Amino acid sequence: MAELLLELLSEEIPARMQTRAAEDFKRLICDGLKGAGIGFETARAFVTPRRLALVVDGIPAVRDDVSEEKRGPRVGAPDQAVQGFLKGAGLASLDQAEKRDTGKGEFWFAVITKKGGPTADALGAVIDGALKALPWPKSMKWGSSTMQWVRPLQSIVALFDGKVLKGEVSPGGKMAPIAFGATTRGHRFLSTGTFEVSSFADYQEKLRAAHVVLDAAERKSIILDGARKLCSDVQVTLNEDEGLLEEVAGLTEWPVPMLGAIDAQFMDVPPEVLIVSMKVHLRFFTTSGADGKLANRFVVVANNVARDGGKTIVAGNERVLRGRLADAKFFWDQDRKTTLESRLPGLKQIVFHAKLGTQAERVERIVRLAGEIARSIPGADAAAVEQAARLCKADLVTGMVGEFPELQGVMGRYYALGEKLPASVADALGDHYAPAGPNDRCPTAPVSIAVALADKLDALTSFWSIGEKPTGSRDPFALRRAALGVIRIVVENKLQLPLRPFLKADDLLSFFAERLKVQMREKGVRHDVVDAVVSLGGEDDLVRLLARVEALQAFLGTDAGKNLLTAYGRAANIVRAEEKKDKGLAARIAGAPDAALLEQAEEKSVASALDEVARKVKPALAAEDFAGAMAAFAGLRGPIDALFDKVTVNVTNRPEIRLNRLKLLNQIRATMDSVADFSKIEG
Amino acid sequence: MSNPSAARGKPTCFQELILTLQDYWAAQGCLILQPFDMEMGAGTFHTATTLRALGPKPWYAAYVQPSRRPGDGRYGENPMRLQHYYQFQAILKPSPPDILERYLGSLQAIGIDTTLHDIRFVEDDWESPTLGAWGLGWEVWCDGMEITQFTYFQQVGGIEVDLVAGEITYGLERLAMYLFDKKSVYYLPYNRADSDVPLTYGDVFLQNEREQSAYNFEHADTGMLFRHFADAETECGQLVEKKLPLPAYEQCIKASHAFNLLDARGVISVAERQSYILRVRELAKACCETWLATQKAAA
User: Fold this and answer.
1) Cβ distance A592 to A664 under 8 Å?
2) A439 has pLDDT over 90
3) What is the rounded CA–CA span in Å between residue B73 and residue A42?
């Protein structure tokens, strides 16, 4: 058993692409090995900013012969099909193929035997295939290459059983081929020259000596442990952040956490502003004091061991932060000299969308909409809603949001608090973009809810009105997110708020239904159950709709529910089969069966059971007692089972009796469909 | 007297920074070109980059380009923002395999000691909507500060490149502020402290920033600029017809600068903005296509 070691050294790979690339590389090589009939035990992938590496263990040194059969065309098939088959199978003529009777006729078969031999001979093709197939989110050419890679590819280590594999990658153009070798490089600044490796163990050890920690998980723990230690030394707590940790581990081959300080003069700027500057712009970790508030220390992770112990690096980073925060503080001080109210005219200068007018016009729509919505929201003070809606976009024309667009809403809240506006209004300014995603918090305060809903519903109806609807993966105005936001706000706050009056377009209501299905599926609700309720149409009160979905799902979980579904299926199948034969039938069997034509006792008892159900279901539905409505159906099961046992529907010699019985079956379907479209339920 | 020897020491002032970079890239085989003599927003607009990035011929060049961004004017009040500043640009086509090592050598040459600093390559994809150009690369960070933009050109004028150029752009003022530890661009030493007439960047350019900001934001005649834009657009189209890509491209640059001034004057709405950018891009595209035809014909 032998080891395969691969390393693709390149210029710096974007951090966000690394993990995925390592997984893809592993998958492609493993699939390639399987495809070539090469067995292996384990495969482990590694990635640093400059290299993708893979070690595969337990590969046999010699491959067995593999034989593979290919079925060709029928004997006597046209020559074109035969030639295609021969070419595909690599045969010269039909003499090399054999005829076999498959029971469905005689077919040509080719038996292709792939000669085994040293595994090493087959590995080059596997590597080449994986390299060509690796899907980078964005790739590029370099020099005169025709090949695409994430950034220029520099060298390749390909060792099998300690020996260099034969092979190379040609970037194309006039560029020299990159031959498989045993040579690599260490850290860009902390090592010089190249070195040879002989195995994975040797590779990992020499990399470490050359200041490269190969394993991203180890780099992460070096960063995390180091950062925690630095923080505890100065009595602050590290604000851990998995996404940032992942990114920083992808920017460093030899991570060195260092502690820096925020200048005291900036500590009265809102913490969100400091956090954006540090975390988003500079990739610093922030820290908290004992009171849980943002502390004046940060952790920066360098990719270097400086000879002055990092003094210069820390000083440099502090200086860059100071520059950014000086800007932020300037805006913070300037912005507070002007009220949000007096900024409103500025919104007339900002175009929201060429066809949808300015932000000022959008705000007018939001004000109107929020007012209407507020009437259905208990505890929403109309004056506060009006004020919050009017001011919700005012911070877009502040200096701070101009410089830090990600702080929209957040700054509005701070400036409103500074002006001593009511807290509910200030909070609504801060909340009205929420929820921005499935993990974002959902507004719960009445004023916030009204403005947040108005913001999203206006975006949806406005873009809908100019034909900008999401298609496939294209959703430039994040309308799916907006619809999901509306759904979450309504459902989580249990709002009795029919949506139809706000949506205007019917296909917008079905867009909501689709979003709802997606959201329910993520919560583990059966999509067919949601479908059965949604496809009834007409229900635009999401809370009521979900109550019905829940009741249906619960009912279908009971024996009574399962049996009734079977009965429904039988009734529907018979009716459908007959309708297929006779186009005009559907119209003739609509409506209740004629009582006078019901002959057998089983028929009569189904008819009266249906009447009974209809009597119970209507008031239950009216009272929104969906569980009660479902329970009413339980009484149907016995009579229906008896009907199928004893009664023949298609009595061919008595057409009026047949028609009446079909009416009865159709009535079963119609009665059940008044609660949910049971035909959508998958067995 | 400044030291005239070729083996320059660490630069101590703005002009030595430029001279050091020129020496360095000349030694790497680059032509040292002079700035393009028209107003433009960035070194990328110089024909030595935009046009030379296209076609099958190799091209190594480096130059300083005065860059004008009318909207960035701050009347000399902001220590870091200027409506007129300098970029140093090196373009190597086809990009050599050791281009990053060569770039790091330039940092060493200007006095950034990699045993003291933390240099990082952070993903940054570059795109110029007006030039119809894009490429992949990085922002290069030194201790958290962006000191260089590094791009491998993939498309220019909407045309996929034959050979990939590596473009290295240094923002000279920002780099100098870092090297010479100055809080304001205006405090930068322009020449050596031991010169007969030592001057700062502010001595040379502060008045210009004040006056040009006033022009850009208050006094530029918008009617005239709209006419200039339209005239340049028409002229560019006619020159493209006559298969004269170089003069045509100059008209494209003129249109682009007129647009930037109009934008700074605040007379172009957000909706119109996009359509102006597209109009400039159409000009750039036509010039690039015409230029490429001349290159392929000559090859």
Assistant:
1) no
2) no
3) 60
Runs of H (alpha helix) within A435-526: 446-465, 479-492, 500-503, 506-522
Q: H-helix or E-strand containing A111?
A: strand A106-114
A163 pLDDT higher than 80:
yes
Question: Cα separations (Å) of A178 from A154, A155, A157?
Answer: 7, 6, 10
Q: pLDDT at residue B155 above 50?
A: yes
Tell me the CA distances in angstroms from A243 to A16, A52, A280, one per residue in order.
Answer: 10, 20, 11
Nearest CA in chain A to B115: A306
Q: What is the distance in angstroms between the Cα of B92 and the nearest Cα belonging to chain A?
A: 9
Out of A80-89, A516-525, A562-571, B44-53, the most confident range is: B44-53
Give the one of B97, B114, B120 whose C-beta lies nearest to A251's C-beta: B120
CA distance to partner chain B, nearest, from residue A167 (Å): 20
Model pLDDT for residues A103-151, shown as the tens digit of each residue = 888 899 888 877 778 899 999 999 999 999 999 999 999 999 999 999 9
Q: What is the mean pLDDT of chain A?
A: 91
Are A47 and A18 within 8 A, CB to CB?
A: yes
Tokens 């709002």 map to which residue? A495
**Could you give the domains of chain B?**
14-214 (3.30.930.10), 221-298 (1.20.58.180)
Mind listing the domains of chain A with CATH numbers? Answer: 2-62+119-209 (3.30.70.600), 66-114 (no CATH), 216-335 (no CATH), 341-525 (1.10.3210), 558-680 (1.10.730.10)
Strand-pair category, A194-196 with A237-238: unpaired
H or E segment to which residue A671 belongs: helix A655-673
Q: Which amino acid is at A359?
A: Q
A272 burial level (CB within 10 Å; 0-12, 13-18, 19+): middle
Q: Which residues of A touch B (CB under 8 A)?
A: 11-12, 14-16, 49, 138-145, 151-152, 154, 173-174, 188-189, 251-252, 282, 300, 302-304, 306-308, 312-313, 315-317, 319-321, 323, 350-351, 354
Question: Nearest by CB to B144, which of A138, A174, A317?
Answer: A317
> What span, in angstroms and rounded, lies between the C-alpha atoms of A515 and A507?
12
* Neighboring chain B residues of A329 at a CB cutoff of 8 Å: none
Q: Which of B114, B123, B268 to mutate to test the interface with A (most CBs of A within 10 A)?
A: B123
Alpha-carbon gap, residue A410 to A168, rounded angstroms: 54
- Better-predicted residue by pLDDT, A147 or A595: A147
A250 has a pLDDT exceeding 60: yes
Nearest to B120 among A173, A303, A323 (CB): A303
> Strand locations in A564-663, DSSP E?
none
Contact residues, chain B, for A154 at CB < 8 Å: 97
Interface check for B122 against chain A (CB to CB < 8 A): the answer is yes
pLDDT computed for residue A232 by the predictor: 97
Number of H helices, E strands in chain B: 8, 9
Chain B environment of A16 (Cβ under 8 Å): 123
Residue A32 in contact with residue A189, Cβ under 8 Å?
no
CB contact under 8 A, B117 and A143: no
**pLDDT of B6 above 60:** no
Residues B277-295 have a mean pLDDT of 95
Nearest CA distance, B59 vs chain A (angstrom): 12
Is A141 in Cβ contact with B154 (below 8 Å)?
yes
Q: Which residue has the higher pLDDT, B177 or A524?
A: B177
This complex has an ipTM of 0.92
Yes or no: say if A36 and A145 are a contact pair by the CB < 8 Å rule: no
Interface check B278 vs A, CB under 8 A: no
Q: Which residues of A touch B114 (CB under 8 A)?
A: 189, 304
Higher pLDDT, B91 or A673: B91
